[in-house]
Amino acid sequence: MFLYDTFPKKFLWGVGTGAFQVEGSWRKDGKGPSIWDHFIHSDFRDAASIDDSSSSYNFLDKDLSALDFLGVTFYQFSISWPRLFPAGMIANANEKGLHYYNTLIDSLVHRNIEPIVTLYHWDLPLALQEKYGGWKNESVIDIFNDYATFCFQIFGDRVKYWITIHNPYLVAWHGYGTGMHAPGERGKIAAVYTVGHNLIKAHAKVWHNYNTRFRPHQKGFLSITLGSHWIEPNKSDDTLDINKCQQSMERVLGWFAKPIHGDGDYPEELKNKLYSFLPNFTEAEKNYIKGTADFFAFSFGPNNFKPPNTLAKMGQNLSLNLREVLNWIKLEYTNPRILIAENGWFTDSHVKTEDTTAIYMMKNFINKVLQDVFGYTAWSLLDGFEWQHAYSTRRGLFYVDFNSKQKERIPKSSALYYKEIVQENGFSAHLWTPASDSSSP
Predict the structure, then answer these.
(1) Which Pfam families match (predicted)?
(2) What CA–CA distance (Å, rounded) separates 41 from 21?
(3) How far is CA 333 from the centre of its chain?
(4) How many DSSP H helices and E strands does the chain contain?
(5) Bridge pairing between strands 338-343 and 410-411
(6) Stretch (H or E) spanning 168
(7) Residue 61 Cα to chain centre, angstroms
(8) Phi and psi for 358 in degrees, rounded to 5?
(9) Residue 72: beta bridge partners?
């Protein structure tokens, strides 16, 4: 049943982007290469066409105008580590990169738009991959903490919400298992879980660093964005099917959520099935890791998690019921405060501004979080580079012609619809519903 209702008065409405997806200018103004720069220039035939993307680095004013149009209360964006520190190691920051992020944050604060800053959205400095093997090497944990410390020192007076790492499951699984993401290693199951292990420890170290050194005077909040599918049994009364669904959730969301939001250790499902590959946490590490999130940042939407060709055999059905997965999180992890940190839908590359399917999905996703969360991030502000899909799909509320020089941001139907939701703080009875009317507003 669709609920026509409004959200709490202080509910946070936002939109998000990832630096690598929208900034462009990968070699401009002293920026160093990232593992994604190397990956796409090695593996993509038309790599030259992706160097600018939406060109947010050059057209910051256009992004700010798009935010003004929507009327959002926060903007979630990531900092490009190699734009600040081209070789990865924390030395003198690249002044032009530093100026860009300071200008962005100052401009948001001036507009009363809360900055929510992600420290790592997949663009590891290439130098750290080449020298250390990237996240496979524990040495990167301390280097990441040094980078985080710099960001807290420089930006923390204006930033109250921090995300350490965006969706570590995809970093580990697609970076080292399927090879679909940078650095493009395939089939190295031990590497997958070593990377996951180091990402968890890196997050915990940064949380403790912030909690001890910065929170007392900056008074901010810090978490890690975790993503998942949602899966339901074919037969709701079949104990075997129910158990398989529970196990599937533990392998994906529980892999990172149970150590951080639970008891500091991996789910038994993982430990039993992967005992020869899964690293162990010491008792001291478990105590250090558990509780290292001030809220539960959750990503849900286009499905990167589907086990290939196994669902029918396992008696499970993928579901887009966001309310049900939120209930699962509340039951598993003692009712945490939840921020929807990423939610949206793909449209085909040929779709320009009439993205009614995206509106239908947005309407239903948002309606399912009424009263359950404290903030919602529509993803994404504008069209950009969509990782392994490159430019074959779009996720923006604003359309961008990537071949144009000026990269104008043109609001799609979904932008107009989201703007109304933000203005109404939810769904009033008169708010038009494209589920039954596919015409543009």
Answers:
(1) Glyco_hydro_1
(2) 15
(3) 20
(4) 17, 14
(5) unpaired
(6) helix 168-176
(7) 23
(8) -60, -35
(9) none
Phi/psi for 155 (5° steps) reads -105, -15
Spatial contact of 120 and 165, defined as CB atoms under 8 Å apart: yes
C-alpha 399/C-alpha 249 separation (Å) is: 34
Residue-wise pLDDT for 340-372, tens only, equals 999 987 787 788 888 888 888 888 888 888 667
- Tokens 């049900």 correspond to 324
Q: Which domains does the chain have, with CATH numbers?
A: 12-424 (3.20.20.80)
Please give the structure tokens belonging to residue 54: 């939406």
* Contact (CB, 8 A) for 258 and 266: yes
> Is the pLDDT score of 433 beyond 70?
no
How far apart (Å, rounded) are the C-alpha atoms in residues 439 and 376?
A: 26
Structure tokens at 48: 């030259």
> Which two three-digit tokens encode residue 161?
């919400």
pLDDT tens profile 4-53:
678 888 999 999 999 999 999 999 999 999 999 999 988 765 555 557 89
Length of the chain: 441
Question: Which DSSP symbol is given to 70?
Answer: H
Residue 194 phi, psi (nearest 5): -70, -45
